[in-house]
Every structure is written in C-alpha cells, then in structure tokens.
Amino acid sequence: MFQINDNYQKLPGSYLFSTIAKKVAAFTEANPDKRIIRLGIGDVTQPLAPAIIEAMHKAVDEMGDAATFHGYAPDLGYDFLRKAIVENDYKARGCEIEADEIFVSDGAKSDSANIQEIFAVNNRIAVCDPVYPVYVDSNVMAGRTGTYDSETEKWSDVIYMPCTAENHFVPEFPKETPDLIYLCLPNNPTGTTLTKSQLQEWVDYANKVGAVILYDGAYEAYISEKDVAHSIYECSGAQTCAIELKSFSKNAGFTGVRLGYTVVPKALKCNGVSLRDMWARRHGTKFNGAPYIVQRAGEAVYSAEGKAQLKDQVAYYMKNASVIKEGLKDAGYTVFGGVNAPYIWLKTPDQMTSWDFFDYLLEKANVVGTPGSGFGPSGEGYFRLTAFGTYENTEAAVKRIQAL
Ligand code: MLT
Q: Probe ligand 1: pick from 43, 188, 251, max atoms within 8 Å of CB?
C-alpha cells in the first residue's frame, strides 16, 4: 500500500492567499451589489510596459518561423538574459557575479520554495516573524520544521526572529544558531527594510556561524533610500554565505507572465561541495527552462526604454503607497513601510485581531487586505495593504477606510 508524504498533513489550514480568496468569494456571493476593492495579495494591476510588449511580439513572430523557432530553452536560461542580469543588476552595482552563477526560472515563489531541497533535512531554519508563508510551508513539506503548536502558532524546530514596531522590524541574531536564514528585504509583509550596514552584520554573522542566507530581493526596485543595498552581494563576504532570489513580478509586472532568477555564487561551498553545482543539477533535472518569449520579455526590462517605462510604473505604485500611508495616518492609524516597498503595514485599531479587522474592513468598507497574523504570530494585531492596486481604487479604498 502506498504512503503519502505525511508532512503535508501537518500544514495547518490552506495557503494564506487561498484562504483570503475563499472568504472574499463567499462575501461576494452573499453581497453581489457591493463593489469590492482588493488590496490583499500583492498582484500588480498596470499593463506590461510597451518595450516588453514589443519584445514579446517580436519573439512570438520568431516562434512562427522555422528559421528562428526556439524549442526547449537552455535549462539555466538564455545567455542574452543572464548577461543582461549580470550587467544591470550586479556589475552596475559593483557586485562580482558572473552569468554562470545566474539561474533563470519561472519566478521567485517557486525558487524560494524549492531552494531548501539542496540542504539537509536536519538543518535549522530561521525566519523573520512575520514572514512570507512560502518559506515556512515549503520546509514543513520537506519535514524540517518539527511539530506545530496551535496555541503559539509556531513550529518546534523553526527559529523565529520577531520583527515588530518595538525593534523597528529589524531581526535580532537568534539565541540558537541557525543553518539557513531567510531574509526578505525590502520586507514582505512589513514593507520595512534594513540599512546596508545592518545587512552587512547579517552577512558577517552567517559567515561566522556557517549559515546560508536565503535572500529574497523581490521588492528591490522599490528601494528609495540611499543607504539600502539593492543586492546582498553589495555586502563584503556575501558570496560565501548567500543565495539571492529575484523576481520580475513586482518590478516589471510579470505576476502573470512568470519569470525570476536565483544567484548561487561559485564561492558558496559546504565541505568543498559547490552549492552552485548542486542547484545546477537540480534545475537541470526538474526544470525545462522559462519560455523563450518570456525571457525575451525579461531582456527588454533592461533596455533603455524598458528601464524608463518601469521606473514610471514603480513610481505609480509608490504614489499609491504614499496615498495609503498618509491617508491612514490622517485617520489616526499607526502605519509602517511604504517607503522602500509597496506594502503598508498598520496596527489594527482598538486591539482588534488581524482577522477581526479583515472581516470588519471587508464588511464595512468592502476593502480586502491581508491579516498580519497570516504571516506569523508576531503579525497578530497588524494588517497589510498593498500599493499594487490602481490609483483610483487605492484612493477610493482609503476614503472608505477614513469614513469608518
Ligand atoms: C504577496 O501578496 O505576499 C505576494 O504577492 C505573494 C507572492 O509574491 O507570491
């Protein structure tokens, strides 16, 4: 008789954004006349930039001609894209990353869920609390997290690093020594970030204790402050302790197109074994390459026109962030984030729980957000709003919240 992977049975509830989608669907069915504004999941609303559309059209035409048709993509990514990434995301910032350390993928969600596969099951993970749920859930599935305590909402073998208003959302070095440290900066969900010198301390710590930092830089394009690193490789010593995960979803609106990449430096080794080679082996075996059309679209992100158009798109969303932040402050809310990230993290009013506030906002203002407790126990009493809506909807949502 076959047996299942029992670890899946340990997962409490469904994936956070699936739970929210179900709740919103039930509310919509019961209230068909209400116009709901969705500021929950961080999904973009602006169309792809013209330079990207043009590159995709051209690539589609190439696919229709035998002379320029492309079948399977190289499993680690086309050279044209890996070179553009190296030049623009690394060399331009003084980071020594080479094309053969870049692994093109279908997005950072899958990479951040899959990367744990190349580490031993008994490795201890450390996560910020609150945290993007994929990091913990993927480790639960792999059997790395121990048992779940529904009282504390914590896993016995996970090291939690609380990030709250009290410590300015800056994680502190944990008492127990982790093997793998997940850092998402600028942070999802709190919308806050670390300075480059604070990040350097984490790199030094990881090198000292022999840990690997799994660095999710999906929101890097939203950094506006000068003393914030755009890549962990701006910190010295990061090549021997950090893997960087990047996405095209938030900087270029590819949530529905799917493209990302992971950097595994050649200098990152465990007892002489190259993690870069392990990830190459894993990628080659389990992934057949992102589509040619999509990789050409990714290349256009780095063209002069693409860069200019996407700068405007990021500015559009950051204007929304400021509308939310200022509007909620005026209404008496305590708000964080929204300066280097497209997320606003707010304290729920009147000691409401995160889920009570979710229901309250949905019912009274018909606005959907994300309950902070869905990201971990230290998120209780907080709530996340995304700046990825349209400007009109964002403004309307803020007015509705102000009127409560
Ligand atoms: C979020 O809302 O946290 C993100 O959109 C989820 C994701 O990027 O997968």
A: 188
Which residue lies with its CA nearest to atom 4 of ligand 1?
42
Residues flanking ligand 1, CB < 6 Å: 41-43, 109, 132, 188
Closest to 158 (Cα-Cα) out of 146, 143, 170, 173: 146
Residue 185 has pLDDT above 90, yes or no: yes
Domains along the chain with CATH numbers = 12-47+305-402 (3.90.1150.10), 53-303 (3.40.640.10)
Residue 13's pLDDT band (cuts 50, 70, 90): confident
> 3-state SS of the chain?
CCCCCCHHHHCCCCCHHHHHHHHHHHHHHHCCCCCCEECCCCCCCCCCCHHHHHHHHHHHHHHCCCCCCCCCCCCCCCHHHHHHHHHHHHHHHCCCCCHHHEEEECCHHHHHHHHHHHCCCCCCEEEEECCCHHHHHHHHHHCCCCCEECCCCEECCEEEEECCHHHCCCCCCCCCCCCEEEEECCCCCCCCCCCHHHHHHHHHHHHHHCCEEEEECCCHHHCCCCCCCCCHHHCCCHHHCEEEEEECHHHHCCCCCCCEEEECCCCCEECCEEHHHHHHHHHHHHCCCCCHHHHHHHHHCCCHHHHHHHHHHHHHHHHHHHHHHHHHHHCCCCEEECCCCCEEEEECHHHCCHHHHHHHHHHHHCEECEEHHHHCHHHCCEEEEECCCCHHHHHHHHHHHHCC
User: Tokens for 328?
Assistant: 């909620």
Ligand 1 atom having least distance to the Cα of 188: 3
Is the pLDDT score of 14 beyond 90?
no
The per-residue pLDDT for range 205-257, each reduced to its tens digit, is 999 999 999 999 999 999 999 999 999 999 999 999 999 999 999 999 999 99
Ligand 1 centroid from CA 43, angstroms: 7
Q: What is the pTM of this model?
A: 0.97
